[in-house]
């Protein structure tokens, strides 16, 4: 049985990164995974949240939002409702944790890097695309701190990417589109480093419980997908990717 | 004295419209006026606000927002603050009024067209660019209603565009960039139709009052700018622009 | 064609200022323009908003509200809704800008003057009446700062007043009552100084665009109305008006 | 020991009712008790809250607010804070209960009477003045329903008034001014009918407990004050007061 | 006529205090009055609200909440509504005032004691049970401050308890259950000290006014009920109760 | 290396269920896992959310809250802040999903079962204890619907329980206490059925990525813990557990 867009079960959609997509943020990347498009930016602020004041440590925090026009039936703005819904909160907490996990906050100095992921078109996998794209924006922002001498040492410990997997019609699939996602019995988001380690594993079988065997297959798909995404991040980062790797190996 | 980007005092920045910028909305346009970039979309909803129920009339409403990364120092999300600030409210009310003024709401049927203007990069004139871009998105959305037979008659009565003008260092200028805008003593937004009539004139001399003569010069600049913008709207709308004009002349 | 209350097209309603209307505020004025009645007060606070701290500058800010019983069908309190609606925000921003424009904030010291405009009865033109009345309250409050020696120099640069004009049944009218306002195709608020300069011009043709000629006629009415209002402000301020003028002429 | 304004311990301040103070509400009264001034209005709405739908019963609800300029240091608007504070809620619940207690809601039909009490100048006793003034506004509003034939029978069962009493410097006092109130060890609000019955008794000894004897003295003062206030309500209501009494006696 | 649970008109329900009900708070008491069950805790925080900074004084503040499952039809959480309703505000202000009235805040040092009253099962009289239980938790918390030497002197001036009384079917009753409370024409909460003095008297006759004689009978029932409750507080506090009394007598 | 409370690395804390803990809810259970204590209730409401109207389907939704006194430093109420924080939203979404996953919503009829989990004492693992306890309350509530004939068929498809696991000082541990949790590099919540299938797996390595091997060890601990918890649920449910199992096997 082939997928709606003819992909194999373990095949990613076409991925494209556009660096320097807008000019105000220190890092600004448009990531496209098929029809899912997210503007990921990284902006540096010279202060930290209250709980980090006078610790010398830095912080990374993320916000996520969908444009009202990003979905087929218009999504009401959270500013109009006056509150951020649970799904958004879950996603921005996930993005923030994922990026903090690969940064040495201790050597960043008292700075906050704000990650903003704004979905301009949604077709499944927006939260995982956000993480994958935001990492590239983060590297660009940190590079500015390196180049202008604010930082002496790259505070990034790994690459990080994320991908969704799920079981649709009994079959494990990599990188679900919206149409697949809405039929999935099990849905999992997997965040990994370039060393093949896990940062976050979130699997939910709301419609039906899943067996340990299912879980193993999904993890394997996630490992494959993330390995490919990180390869693409390295490609698009070019020299910066090399720098990052060299420094780590020292 | 020349302007920071070498333009004449009565010269617009380069303007670019990208139609069908995203795929979910019925109309979706990226408008660029120099470095100001706004995604303008029009989405059709098959119901109207309570005050129009059972009247057979339609409605057009607009929302405006700036991405946090659209400005040099990160703009806090209104959803995080839990409320929409006064400036945003003013702007979205202006956009809504401008578009409603050129639509025959009586013949639209009980539908709402949602206009969303999301600024992805800001360099002055975002509210006027929003109006100019949103009109093009609106035409595309209405065209779908014409093509699928929902509407029998074009409900659009005019083209509409908007431009900012102001007095900077004593000199009237057309289409202010952010740097100019922040030094302007007088600031005016002018919304006009293709018949050269005014829909909205909003001039403010917070820093210094302005004379009637100043006012006349600013209006003249606004007339010139809007005439050029509407010419560009016609160009980008092509056949649709012709249809619109023919119908009006009948 | 005569108006509902028999006025000429260029005639103001009867205007009445009651100074010292309440006792707690430094300036407190009841302004009546026909049946529109607004309590305008000015209160001095010995601090400034954060963005002005340690600049030595002062600030003027305005709030506007309508009593629930001021309108024919009861207006729901904004405190009950939990938010300030867009119209109110627009109006209080307008009042604030208008008053700041004629004050030399640099010489005021780090003080905020709070202007409150509370409409106790509404019959059209509440925002323009608020500006005209608030100016008188502001003069009284500033006078206290002069008399007790806090200020050495009058920081007021001009008188300021405001009036509404509009086109009703094709005819330009000065100072619209509610019944006229609700039928107006074009609606404009004009804020001016006693030197005949403009501070704010806000014209809207939501129902129908207006020609440049219409605009000129409306501006002329606004000039006439404001000149008369400022004459009345001078009358009611008596000696204080003279002081203000003398100082300016020095 | 005499009081700051020379009154006896059991003496009310000068009381003044101005009926028809504004024109939009069905009942509109300015009550002045010394320097405390409250606009009390009653507006009729042709629907009831959800819990009364299809019961044939009516409802009375009250809202209370202080103008920012009513107090010596400016009171921040509750609409600006985005919420109604505890004190305001307590007061508007008290006013609503007091008025509902003397109305036969069963014979009112499915109508809500909105009572609004807006303090324009505060000098102690604003909540009790609100009740006393609101009753007069309520009578005027109900009278309209009687006169236009909506109601066949007066639904008012009693007159109602309220007054504050307290112990200041060890001495029980009637009708406290702000300066007295802020020094009071015990503070009590007493709401009564013209038959000398109690509707509400709220006594608080936050600063110091009070004895049963204190309580008795305060109740006696409250009875005296309310009897006088109701006499004044009858005077100002004139014929309407007679009607009300006759009907009750039938 | 006997009561639903066979009690005499002047009889309390069975009362039970469980001290140290949970382990995190400095004082933690489960109070049961019949089927009404409230967890009352006292937690010490080493700072005071802004208005007490640098005064050397302490503060006591209370919060009250009902679990959604405490009432027969599920009570919507106030956090879900986004605001605290009027009844809750009234109750927590009452609890706070009651406890502050018997504490010498001047000798407490700059500390806040947070009183939390969380109703886990409601059957009438939750606010009065909260006060009675919270006092015991407060004593335990203060005792910790005495034992660890933070305080040198007991800052508690009296015992405090509270009870509800009301008139049901024309008969004054002590300690109303929910079923009685919902039929009561008059409802009164009485807060008293162990010296037989009143701290708060709140009586409401929303359904029907009450006579002075009714009031006297209700006060007598309240005195009886509070005397019994304070006896039980002393019993459960044991040695601590003695300490408290001895110190006061010195 | 032994754990702070002497447990083995794969040992649960003492678990205790108290059924019928309060009387108003249809199901009410106090679950204690060591010092973590949560009141879990299930209440039946005869309506469904709008998206299920007229579908014949039922719904289960969960809310979670911590009493201010449940944690060592007092937790500010979400009702006081006016919003529900991200963590709470995440948890209540998790509890809701977990319970819905084992219920046949199609055969429930148009009913909502409200699950409330209120933490009265917190020592780690409150969200997993909530799920484990809430399941027992849910069975009791559903049993009432069976007994009164509202339901003809048990809609429960499995037992469900949850447990936390984590890596502390390099060692995988089952059922973390707060002190362990705050030192854990990896933290995972595992929700399972009595058939040994997974409903939710949420693992986070914010402090450090984890290997596939770590993941396997944690899953094994989770399987062991959940098997034991479900055994205890069966014990406490007694006959009801048998009924549930019999029906499933038919």
Any descriptors?
homohexamer; 250 residues; alpha+beta; Ribosomal Protein S5, domain 2; five-stranded mixed beta sheet; 6 helices; 9 strands; 27% strand; globular; tRNA processing (chains A, B, C, D, E, F); 3'-5'-RNA exonuclease activity (chains A, B, C, D, E, F); RNA-binding (chains A, B, C, D, E, F)
Radius of gyration of chain A: 18 Å
**Separation, N- and C-terminal Cα atoms of chain A:** 48 Å
**What would the average pLDDT of chain A be, to the nearest integer?**
94
Can you name the CATH architecture of chain A? 2-Layer Sandwich
Beta strand count of chain A:
9
Strand coverage percent of chain A: 25-35%
Q: What would CATH call the class of chain A?
A: Alpha Beta
EC number (chains A, B, C, D, E, F): 2.7.7.56
Domain Exoribonuclease phosphorolytic (chains A, B, C, D, E, F): 11-141, 159-224
Catalytic activity (chains A, B, C, D, E, F): tRNA(n+1) + phosphate = tRNA(n) + a ribonucleoside 5'-diphosphate
Subunit structure (chains A, B, C, D, E, F): Homohexameric ring arranged as a trimer of dimers.
Could you explain the architecture of this structure?
Six copies of one chain form a homohexamer. Chain A is of the alpha+beta class and 250 residues long. Chain A has one domain: Ribosomal Protein S5, domain 2 (2-Layer Sandwich). The first copy, chain A, has six helices and nine strands; from the N terminus they run E-E-E-E-H-H-E-H-E-E-H-E-E-H-H. The first copy, chain A, has helices at 78-81, 86-100, 126-147, 178-181, 212-237, 239-249; strands spanning 15-19, 27-33, 36-45, 59-66, 112-121, 160-168, 171-174, 186-193, 198-204. Chain A has a five-stranded mixed sheet with strand order 1-2-3-5-4. A four-stranded antiparallel sheet of chain A has the order 7-6-8-9, sandwiched between helices. In chain A, strand 1 (15-19) and strand 2 form a beta hairpin. Chain A is globular. Chains in contact: A-B, A-F, B-C, C-D, D-E, E-F. At the D-E interface, helix 2, strand 8, strand 9 and helix 5 of D face helix 2, strand 8, strand 9 and helix 5 of E.
């Amino acid at each position: 049985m082939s997928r709606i867009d003819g992909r194999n079960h373990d095949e990613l959609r076409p991925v494209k990164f556009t660096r320097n997509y807008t000019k105000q943020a220190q890092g600004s990347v448009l990531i496209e995974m098929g029809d899912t498009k997210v503007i990921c930016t990284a902006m540096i602020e010279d202060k930290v949240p209250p709980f980090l004041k006078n610790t010398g440590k830095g912080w990374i925090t993320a916000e996520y939002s969908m444009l009202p026009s990003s979905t087929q039936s218009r999504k009401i703005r959270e500013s109009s409702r006056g509150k951020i819904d649970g799904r958004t909160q879950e996603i921005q907490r996930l993005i923030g944790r994922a990026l903090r996990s690969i940064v040495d906050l201790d050597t960043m100095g008292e700075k906050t890097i704000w990650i903003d992921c704004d979905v301009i078109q949604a077709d499944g996998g927006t939260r995982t695309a956000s993480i994958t794209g935001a990492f590239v924006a983060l590297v660009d922002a940190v590079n500015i701190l390196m180049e202008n001498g604010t930082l002496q040492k790259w505070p990034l410990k790994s690459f990080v990417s994320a991908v969704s997997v799920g079981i649709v019609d009994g079959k494990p699939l990599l990188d679900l589109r919206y149409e697949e996602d809405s039929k999935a019995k099990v849905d999992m988001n997997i965040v990994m480093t370039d060393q093949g380690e896990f940062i976050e594993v979130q699997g939910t079988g709301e419609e039906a419980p899943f067996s340990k065997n299912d879980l193993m297959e999904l993890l394997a798909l996630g490992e494959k997908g993330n390995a490919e995404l990180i390869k693409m991040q390295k490609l698009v980062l070019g020299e910066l990717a090399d720098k990052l790797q060299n420094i780590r190996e020292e």
